[in-house]
## 1
Amino acid sequence: MEEQVSAEKSDGMKQEWVNLIRVFTCPEDEKTRDVLVHHMRQILFELHDFLIQNVGITEAVSLKEISDRCTDTVMNSLPEKRLADVVSGVFEEIAPHAVNVASPYFVGHMTAAIPYFMVHLKAIVAALNQNVVKLETSKMLSVVEKQVVAKVHRIIYQKDEAFYREHVQNTHTSLGSFTEGGTTANLTALWVARNRALGPVGAFEGVEVEGLPAAYAAHNIDRCVILVSRRCHYSLRKCGGILGIGNGNIIPVPVDRTNRMRVDRLAEMIEGFKKEGRTRVAAVVTVAGTTETGNVDPIPEISALCRKEGIYLHADAAWGGPTLMSETYAHLLKGIEQVDSVTIDGHKQFYMPMSTGMVFFKDPTSLDAVAYHANYIIRKGSVDLGSKTLSGSREANCLILDSAFKIMGSRGYGMLIDHGIELARSFAEEIERRGIFQLVTRPELNILTYRVCPAPFQEEMAQASPERILELNEHFNEVNRALQQEQREAGNSFVSRTVLELETVFPGFPEGKVVVLRSVLMNPLTTMDVLRDILDEQEALYADWLRGTSTRKGRNREDAI
Amino acid sequence: MEEQVSAEKSDGMKQEWVNLIRVFTCPEDEKTRDVLVHHMRQILFELHDFLIQNVGITEAVSLKEISDRCTDTVMNSLPEKRLADVVSGVFEEIAPHAVNVASPYFVGHMTAAIPYFMVHLKAIVAALNQNVVKLETSKMLSVVEKQVVAKVHRIIYQKDEAFYREHVQNTHTSLGSFTEGGTTANLTALWVARNRALGPVGAFEGVEVEGLPAAYAAHNIDRCVILVSRRCHYSLRKCGGILGIGNGNIIPVPVDRTNRMRVDRLAEMIEGFKKEGRTRVAAVVTVAGTTETGNVDPIPEISALCRKEGIYLHADAAWGGPTLMSETYAHLLKGIEQVDSVTIDGHKQFYMPMSTGMVFFKDPTSLDAVAYHANYIIRKGSVDLGSKTLSGSREANCLILDSAFKIMGSRGYGMLIDHGIELARSFAEEIERRGIFQLVTRPELNILTYRVCPAPFQEEMAQASPERILELNEHFNEVNRALQQEQREAGNSFVSRTVLELETVFPGFPEGKVVVLRSVLMNPLTTMDVLRDILDEQEALYADWLRGTSTRKGRNREDAI
C-alpha cells in the first residue's frame, strides 16, 4: 500500500516535472504556439482597454480596499494558474487599479505613453536574456552597448570622428554606460567625482580603498562638499549619504526667479570654502531640466567657473538631455559639451520602458576611478562591461535604444521634444488668459507650474503686507492641495503637485511655501484641447469649493498624502 | 518658389508627425494589429532558431569582426527602419552573435533559460509601464510589490501570521524591496548596516547626514570594517568603496576546505578589533551560495556570534535563496531566519528576466535608516515605495514574480532547485569516475569546480615537494585555461573558469592559484547526457593538447581574457 502511494506520488511528480520542462522549451506544435501568440495579442491590445478605465489613482476603489485584497502572504505550494489565467487576472484585477500613465490626460509626472514597438523591443531583450556584465553572457550586446553609448555621447560632446573611432570599441576606455535609472547614473558620476577629488597621494591609496576618514587625513581636509542647484533632484542628497560624504554636505546653491542656479552665489560659495581652507569642493552639479520646473542652469558660466577652479562638474540632464536632438531647442542646453559627466534617463524623454538611465563621461578614462575585477569574470583588461558599472548583472537595454533610434531617428525624437516645449508655451498662455489661474513658473522646456489664485487675489498679494501674503498663500495652498487630490481621484485627468519657495512668486520674500500644480508635457497625444479640458475641470472643482459642495470636506482619507 | 518648398517641407513634417503619433496609439485596424502580433510570434519562436546557432561566444565570427561592424557613431537623423526591419535585423545580425544562455549546454554562469511565460510577463510590465517609485504612477503595483516582498520574506523569516498581517500593507514599515540586482541589494543592506552602526549620538545627526569622518569622530573610532567570507561576491568590496568605508576595510575571513567561513577565525577577528578598541565592526556578511563554488556558510554559528557581539549580520543569498523553496534542501540554509537582512536575485534561481534583485529585512523598520523624501513625490508618511530604495524610478517587476509563483508554485521552484542539486552530485560522481579529471570543490548546492588533472598527477602532487606541486599546478593551470577557451570558442558548450587558492586542493598549502572549470547547474533541460557530452569534449580537447594538435598554439588572440 505504502509503495503504491509512493509510486503514485512519483508519477504525479513526474508529470509536474514534465509540465515544468515544457515551460522552458520552445513549443513545436502550432496549437501551443497560437495560444502563446494569442496572449501576446491580448497584452498588446486588450490591456489598453482595461487601463483606460481610469487615468489617475481614483477613489472608485480606494487604496484601502486594494490593499485589503493583497494581504495573503502564504505562498501557494502547487501551481494555481496557467498563463491564460494570469493574463486575464492582470487585466481584470490589476490593470483597472493601475495608473494609465499613457493617457494624454496624464500630464503630472515624467512617466507617459511609450511607442508600441517598445513592448516588442523589451520582449526581445527578455527573450535574449543576455547579461551585459560580461562578454561571456552577452558577446555582441556588449559591443552594441558601447556603440549606442558612443552615439549619445557624440550628441552631447560632439568630439571629432577620430575620437569616436578610437574609443567606440576600445576595451580600455569607456564613454559611459547604461544604468537602471537617473539615481544610479548620478551616483556613478559622483562616485567618480569623489574618487578623483580624493585620489591616491603619497602612501595613501585613494578613498575607494582606504575610505573617507583616511582620505580627509591624507588630503589634509576636514570636509568635502558637493554644490548643487537648490532645484536639484532629491537623488543627489541621497548620493551624498550613500557615498559617505553626508547629505548635509550636499549644499544647495540659491537659484534665481527662473529656477536657475545663481552663478554669482556659486562663485561666492567656492571662494568661501577656499578661504576657509579645510573644505574640498568635490563636485558641482548643474541641472538641465529641473524635476519640478523644467529649467536649465546657465551651464556655460558654471562650466567656466568650475574649469577655472579645477572642480568636477556633473550635469543632471535626466530630463532635459534628449532636447539635444531637437534642431530648434538644442541650444537650450548649450555648454553641456563642457561638463565632465552627464546623466540622461532612457525611460523619460527617450520614451523607453522603465527602468533605464545612462551616464556619459567627457574623459574616456574617468570610469577607471571605479573599476572592479573578479576572478571568474571581468578580469583585468577584459571586454566585460561590468568592470566599470555600479551594478553587476544587467539586461541589454542598449538594444532598445539602438532600435528606437533606427525607427524614429534623432529627428523623430526632436519632434517629440518640440511638441512638448511648444505645447507648454501654449498651455502657459492659456493659463494666463484664464482669470482664476496664476502661472507660477514659466516653461523653459516642457514643464510648468501654476495654481488656482484668481487675478484679484494676485493683485492684492502683489502689494499686501507680509502677514496678509502669508495668510492668502496659506489659503490657496489649501485650495490647490485639495483640488489636485479631487481631480486625481475623479480619474479623468492627472496633474501633480509640489511645493516651491514663496520667493519664486514674490521676490525678496523667502518665508513660506507655495503649493503648485505641475504639468509635464511629454505625451505626443496631449493637445491643447486636452489641456483646456483639464483647466475646465479645475475651474469647476474650484467653483464647487467656493460653493462648499466639495466632496472632500470632512471625508475620512487614508491616502491624502 | 520658396514658399512652395516650405509648404512641401511642412507637409513632409506633418506626415512625419502623423507617423510618430501612430506608434504611440493603439491601432484599431486588424491589419496593423496582425502585423504587430506577427512580430511577437517571431520574437517568441524564431529568435530561438537564430540563437541556437552557437552556444558559447565562438570565434566563428571574432569579437574583432563584430566590433568592427559597430563603429558608426553618427546617429541617423531620419527614420531608417520599420519595426519589421528591426526585428529581422536583430535576428540576423545580433542574435547569431549573442550568447545562447538558454542552451542546456551553457552551464558556465548564473544566467540560463527562463520559462517562456517570462517573456509575456515582461511584456505586460512594459505595456503597463508603471513606475513604482510613487503611488501616483503605480497605485496597485505598489501594493502588489509589498505583498510579493512579504511572501518571500515569509519563506525566509517564517514569522507568524499576525506579524505579516501587521506589516504586509503597512505604509510605515517595510519588509524589503525589489532592486535591480544583487549588487544594489547588497549595497542597500550595507547602507542600512553602516547607518545603524554610526547613527545619531548627542549632537551628531548620524552618518547619513554628516558623513563618515564626522561619524568616526562622534563615535570615537578610527576605522570601520565589514567582515566577509573570503569567497564572497566582489560586489561587497565595491559596496565598501561606494559607502566610503573603503574596500580595503572589507576584510575577508578565511574559509575552510569546503569554502565555508571559519567561525573560529571570525570570532578571533572580532575579538582582535574589540581589544584594539578603535575599530567598529559595522557588519558581517555571510554567503548562502558562494558565486564560485556554491557553498553555504555555517549561518547558525555566525548568527549566534553576531547576536552575542551586537553586530549586524547580512546574508548574501543572491544565488542560494530560492533553495528555501525546496522541501528536500531548504535545510541547507538553516539559520537564515536569524540574520538581519538577505539578498536574493530574481534573475538567478527565480528564473526571472534580467535585471531583478531583492533585499529583505528582519526588522520592518530597518529601512528607516535610509529614507528620503521630496516635495513632489514620496512625501513623508506616503505609500510611495521610492522613499526607502536606493533607486528612484523603477519598473514593476513584482508583477513578474507574483505571476510566476501562481504559475509554478513554490513546489515548481523547489523541483528546479532539487534538479540542480541532484544533477550536480551526479556530475561530481561522473567527474571523479573519469580518470583525467579532478573534482576541486564538491557541490553543496548546484555549483561545482573541477579541472583536467589525470589521476597519476593527482597522486604525484599529493606527496610531491612544494616546488614540484607548484610546477605541476602551473602546468595544469595552463592546460585548463586553454581548454576552457577552446571549448567556448568551438561553440558547442560552455563552462566558465575561475581561480581558487591552492589551499582548496592542498590543505595547508596556501601559495599559488588553481585554475578550475566551473559548472552552474540551473537549467532544467540540462541532463547527465549533456554533461557527459561536455566532459567528452573536454577529454578530446585534452587529447589534442597532448598530441600538440591544438589549434590554440601560436594563435593571435584578441579576446583571450
Note: The two ends of chain A are 62 Å apart (CA to CA).
## 2
Amino acid sequence: MSAVRFGIAGLGRLGRRHAENLAWRVPGAQLVAACSPVAEEREWASSNLPALSLYADYDELLTDASIDAVWLVTPTSLHASQIIAALRAGKHVFCEKPLSLDLAECDAVIDEHARHPHLHVMIGFVRRFDASYRDAFDSVANGAIGRPFMVRSQTCDKNDPDGFFVRFAPTSGGLFLDCSVHDIDLARWLLGNPRAKRVYASGTIAIHDGLRACNDIDNGVGTIEFEDGRLAVLYASRTMAHGHDTQTEVIGTAGALAVGRNPRANRVEIADVHGMRNACTPTFFERFEDAFLREAQAFVALLRDGKPTGLTLDDAREATRIGIAMRRAYEEGGAVEL
Amino acid sequence: MSAVRFGIAGLGRLGRRHAENLAWRVPGAQLVAACSPVAEEREWASSNLPALSLYADYDELLTDASIDAVWLVTPTSLHASQIIAALRAGKHVFCEKPLSLDLAECDAVIDEHARHPHLHVMIGFVRRFDASYRDAFDSVANGAIGRPFMVRSQTCDKNDPDGFFVRFAPTSGGLFLDCSVHDIDLARWLLGNPRAKRVYASGTIAIHDGLRACNDIDNGVGTIEFEDGRLAVLYASRTMAHGHDTQTEVIGTAGALAVGRNPRANRVEIADVHGMRNACTPTFFERFEDAFLREAQAFVALLRDGKPTGLTLDDAREATRIGIAMRRAYEEGGAVEL
Amino acid sequence: MSAVRFGIAGLGRLGRRHAENLAWRVPGAQLVAACSPVAEEREWASSNLPALSLYADYDELLTDASIDAVWLVTPTSLHASQIIAALRAGKHVFCEKPLSLDLAECDAVIDEHARHPHLHVMIGFVRRFDASYRDAFDSVANGAIGRPFMVRSQTCDKNDPDGFFVRFAPTSGGLFLDCSVHDIDLARWLLGNPRAKRVYASGTIAIHDGLRACNDIDNGVGTIEFEDGRLAVLYASRTMAHGHDTQTEVIGTAGALAVGRNPRANRVEIADVHGMRNACTPTFFERFEDAFLREAQAFVALLRDGKPTGLTLDDAREATRIGIAMRRAYEEGGAVEL
Amino acid sequence: MSAVRFGIAGLGRLGRRHAENLAWRVPGAQLVAACSPVAEEREWASSNLPALSLYADYDELLTDASIDAVWLVTPTSLHASQIIAALRAGKHVFCEKPLSLDLAECDAVIDEHARHPHLHVMIGFVRRFDASYRDAFDSVANGAIGRPFMVRSQTCDKNDPDGFFVRFAPTSGGLFLDCSVHDIDLARWLLGNPRAKRVYASGTIAIHDGLRACNDIDNGVGTIEFEDGRLAVLYASRTMAHGHDTQTEVIGTAGALAVGRNPRANRVEIADVHGMRNACTPTFFERFEDAFLREAQAFVALLRDGKPTGLTLDDAREATRIGIAMRRAYEEGGAVEL
C-alpha cells in the first residue's frame, strides 16, 4: 500500500511540529509539499524537512497533483474556506481545531463534505488521541466507573507575563472558543455524545487587562447541562503560575477517573527546601507531544485502512455551537438555552 | 481562670463526638449538662460521659444556672429558636451549621444577639478550624499565591447504598443548603469576604431516585459570581464510590493552593494487583475529627480570652442566603441575582 | 477505676510534650509530679502544668507515695539504672527509647523486672503507636500483602545547619543506635519478630565533619538478615534538606505497603513557580505528635485494663543488640554474625 | 549525510522492538539486514519490516558490505565474541546490556576495540536515555541537590506466576548481573563515576523455589561503597505484585531527586472501592519504550555526528565487575573488597 502524500499549510510553531511528525515519524505518511505565505517559514521548511515542494499560495498547493491530503495548521478564520477548497480539489483534509468560530461556516463545510463522501475530513481534537485520555475513555466504555454522569475538565495555560497572546485575542473567538472547545469535545466524547440543553458561564480578568478591549477574559468557568441530567463543568485559564495544567475528571455511579491531576513534567520528584515537588509541563506541546503524533497516525490509518477515528464534523460543529453559547452566556450573565 | 461550663443539646452521632471532646479533650471546658428528648441518648450520656446533669427538655437545660454556654447539635429547624432562647437565658451559644434554612430566622437571631452584646454565638463551620484549611488561609493571607480570585470547592459524601439519608432529605434544605453551605463559607473566607452578586446551579439525580419526591438531587454544581470578578465553583455529591472527598482549591495570580486533593485515610500506600493506591476517608468524621476538636478549643478561647474566631453570624447568614439562591437557580434553570 | 498517677522525669523538649499529654490529653492519667535537676525546667512545669509536686532529685521522686508510675524522658545513659530504681520503689515505668546502649544493662533491667512481675515496663518505640504504622501492621497481619519478607525503613532528620547535635553525638551511641533503632524495631515487628542472623552497615559523613572525632557518621545504611531469609534494609540520616522523612516499606509475596513515602506536612498542595509541591514535616514532633499521645494512652490502658501493647523488654534489648552489631559492622567494614 | 545502515542480530521480544525502531522511527537510520537462527523470527521480519536481507548465520551478516553497523540483541553469552567479530569485520556495534558475565571477556572486547579506534561500540544501558533519568542527571550536574553522595536504586519486575524466567536463570548470571547491573551503572553515572571499594549483598527466594537449583534468588539487596564515602543501596526483585517498578533516588547535601517513585502507567487516576489509585507499568517495555528509541537515536547521532553518549566500554566492564562482586558477596555472606 502506498504512502499517503501530504501537503501541509501553515508552518508556525505548531505547524512545524506537525510537519516534523509527518516527515519523520508517521509510517505510511509522506510529506511532499508545504505552503506558507511567510518566506521565513518556507525557508525553515527547506532547511529542516526532507525535499518537498514549497508554495506561498494555498490555491497553488491544491493544484499539486502529487498530494493526496492537506494538513491545515492555519488561522481559524481560514479553516472553513480552506477545507471547502481542498474538498473541491479532491483532497482529504486534516484541520486543526476549532473547525470555525461561526456555525454557518461549520454547516457549509458539512454540506460540502456531503458532496465528497469518498474524502475524509478530520478536525484535530488532539486530546482524544492522548494515551491517558484514550485509557480513560476505554475504561469508561468498559464500565469501570458505572454510568458516567458528569465531567469536570479544564484547559489552563501557563501565564505569559508578556501577555503576547492578548494581541491575538480579537481573532481567537475568546477564551471559551479557543480553550474550552477542547473540554467541550472531551465532555461530549466521555459522556457518550449527549445533546446539550443549556449552558451557563462566568469569567474574569485576573491579570491581562488588555483583554478588556475585545471583551475577552483570562479565566472563565462554565456549566453545560445535557439531556438526561448529565453535566459538564469547565474551566479555562491563561494565568497559571506553575505550567500548562490540563485535566479532566469523569464521575460515574461506581467511581471516578481523573486524567492529569498533577501536570507532572516527567517521573522526577525533588525533595528540597521547597518541599516535595515535581516540575510541571510548561506548555501544551510537552503535554500532548505524543498525542499529536498519534493523531497523525490515526488520520493515516483512516485514509489507508478506513479505520474510524470516532470523530466527526458534527462533533466539531457541536463543540463550536456550545462554545458560542458559553460566550453568549458570559456576555449576557444568564443561562443560554440550546 | 475557671473552666467554661457547657450544656450540650443533641446526642446523635455527631453530638456524641462533640460531647466527648468537651468532656475529655478541651482544656478549659467542662461538660456539666446534656439534653436530649431521646431516652436512649441520655442513657448513653450517663454511661459514657463524666457525671453531669441530664435533661429531656431544652427549656429545662436553659434554667440550669451552672451552665455558661450551650452547645447545639440539634436539627437545623430548631437552631434559630434555640439560639434565641439561650441568649435570652444569658448563655453563650455554639451551634452546628447551618444557622437556619430561612433568612428571616437568620435575621431574628442576629437581632436577638444585638441585644446581648456580651454573649457570644458561633456557628460551627468546622472546616475553618481544620489544620490544612487554616494553613491554606494563612498562606493566602501571606500572599503565597498573589491575589486570590477563584475558589473551587466540593463536599462529596460516600454513597450510602441504603439511601438512608433520603428520609431526611425533605428537612435538610436540599443538597446546596446541607452540603454546599460549607463550600460557600470557605469560598467567602478564602477570598476575603467579597459580596455575592449572582449565582447559577445545576443538578442531577445519579442514583437516589427517592429524592425526586422532595425535588432534591444527589449531585449538584454551582457558580457564585462575587463583586470584583471573584468566582467560586462548587460541587456537592452524595454518591462517591471511594469515600468522603472534600477538597478546596484557591487560585491566585501567582499560584494555587489545593486542600485535600486526595482524600487519603492516612500515610499508608498499597502496591498490589489494584495498582498503587491509598484508602480514603470514609466519612467527614474521620476527615474532620481534629477540626471538631480545634473548633471547640477556638470557642473556649473566645469565651475565656476573647480571642476572635473570625466567624460571625453575618457569615452564617450569608452562607444561607447564597445557598438558598443556588437552590432557586437550580429549580428555575436560570441565574439568580443577589 | 481511679486514674493512674504519673511522675515524669526529664522536661526537655520532648519531655514537655509528654508532660502536656499526661496532664491534659490522656483520659485515665493524672500527672502529679515532675522531676528535673534543671531549675528552669521545673519553673516551666510550675507555670505550664496543673498543680504538681516538683523534685530536683530522681530518688526523691521515687519516694513520692502518690505516684503509681514514672515516665522517663531522661538521657539514655540513665535509663537502665533509673528503671531498676523505679521497679525497686514499686513503680511502673515508661521509658523513652532506647532502653540502653549496652547489652549488659538491658539484661540487668530484664532481670530486675522479672523480680516484679506485677509491674509494667514499656520502652517508647513510638512509631508502633502511629495510626499509619498501626494500619500497616494490621494489614500485614490480615494477609493484605501475602507473606512479608522484607522491610525497608528509614529515619532521616532534617539537617540542622548549626550542627547542634554534634555536641551530643559522643553520648548518643551513634547514628545506628540513636536513629536506626526505631527501624530495627519496626522491621522486627512488621516481619513477625524473626531472629537476626547477620548484619552489615556502611556510612559516610556528608556534611558534619565534627562527627569524625567520635567516629560517628551523618548518613548510614545497613542490612539485617533474619532467619528464613527475611531481610531489612535501613537508612538513617541527619542531613535531609526537605524535612524529617521517616518512611517504611513492607514487601510481601502479594503486595507491598509503604508508610510515609511523602512526608507531607498536611493536606495542602501548592502549585507555583516551584512546581506542584507540598511542605514536609520539619521534625519528628510534628510527624509523631499523635503517636506520642496514643503511646501514652496505650500505656495507661495497659496499667488500667491489662491491655497488652505487644512491646516487650526483649524487643527493646533486641533493638539494642542489632544496633550495636550495625555499628560494629560499620567500624570493621565487614559483616557481623549474631 | 547518508543514513547509517544497520543489520540487527536477534529478533526475540526485545529484538523486535529495536528492529521496529530502527526501521521506522530513527531519522538517519536504515535497517537493511536482520539475522536470526530461528526461522519463525526471520519470517516475522520479512512480514513486518521494510524489505531487508535476512540471514540465519551471524557470520554471513558480517560479510554483508551494505551494513555499517550491527545491533546485537542476542543472548549475553554471545555478546563478547559477536562484538569482536563485528569489529574485525569493520562494523560499528550496538549491543544490549550486559557486555558479558565474565571480566576476561570484557577485557578482550576492550582490547579488540582499541585496535579499531574509528569504530564505535555502545552497550545499551537504556535507562541513561530515559527522559526522566536524563533530567535527574542534568539536575544533579547543575547542582540542584548539592553534592550527591548516595544513590538508592531498584529494578523490580512484576511477578510471573508461571515462573517462566526460572528456565533462563542458569544462563542469566543471576539476579545481580541480570537486573542490578542497570542500577550499578546508574549509581556510577549519577555519582560521577567514583571507584567502588567494597560491596555487600544479601538475597532470598520469596516465591520461586526453582531458583535454588542454580543458586539464584528472586529478591536481592546490596550495598556498594565507593571511594570518598559515596554509597549505593540496590534492590532487585522478580516478584512484585503491582508491576515493573524501577526507581532511583539520588541524595545530596542540598536535596534529593527521585525517579519513578510511583510506577504509574499513565496520567489516569481512579477513585473507586479500592481507594485512590493508578495502574502501574506492567513491564520494562512500557516503562522504557521511549528510552529505547532515544538510545537508538543517540547511537545514530554518535555515528553520524560524533556526538558522545558518555557511555564507555569501561563503564560496561565496571558494571559487570561490581555485579560479579555482589553475587560473590551474597554467596559468601561477607563483604567483598574490590
Note: Chain D touches chain A at residues 24-25, 27, 131-132, 135-136, 139, 144-145, 254-261, 265-273 (CB under 8 Å).
